[in-house]
Amino acid sequence: MTTSDSEPGADSVSGAEPLPSASAELSARARAVLALERRSWAGPGAKERAIREELGMSPVRYFQLLNALIEDERALREDPVTVNRLRRLKEERRGRR
């Protein structure tokens, strides 16, 4: 068992197992994804580099996790400003299609 397996909410963004109950907290990894998403980026490639260096994952995986996370009500409770901003952006993109 890894440390992320023992954290409440560890599966919330892993995609490996069902989501825990709504009362569980977000995992440290999920909070790290939200924290990275709150930041602004100086230029092209800076965000992708930070994803690889700070989170140790590919940008593709990061965005898969982020998309699942913005639908999670626990993420909304944790960081409503960021989650609502991302939800609005997602809806705008969907509307343009």
What does this structure look like?
- With 97 residues, the chain is mostly helical.
- It is built from six helices and no strands.
- The protein has helices spanning 3-6, 28-38, 46-55, 59-69, 73-78, 80-96.
- Helix 2 (28-38) runs antiparallel to helix 3 (46-55).
- The longest helix has 17 residues, at 80-96.
- It starts with a helix and ends with a helix.
- 19% of the residues are buried.
List keywords for this structure.
97 residues; globular
Low-confidence parts: 1-20
End-to-end Cα distance, whole Å, is 43 Å
Give the rounded overall mean pLDDT. 82
Rounded to an integer in angstroms, the radius of gyration calculated over CA atoms is: 14 Å
**Secondary-structure-derived class:** mainly alpha
Query: What is the string of helix and strand elements?
Result: HHHHHH
Strand content: under 5%
Count, helices: 6
* Share in helix: 55-70%
Largest sheet: none
Number of strands: 0
What would the principal axes of the Cα set say about the shape? globular
What's the short story on this structure?
The chain has 97 residues and is mainly alpha-helical. The chain has helices at residues 3-6, 28-38, 46-55, 59-69, 73-78, 80-96.
Secondary-structure topology with pairs:
Elements: H1 3-6, H2 28-38, H3 46-55, H4 59-69, H5 73-78, H6 80-96
Helix pairs in contact: 2-3
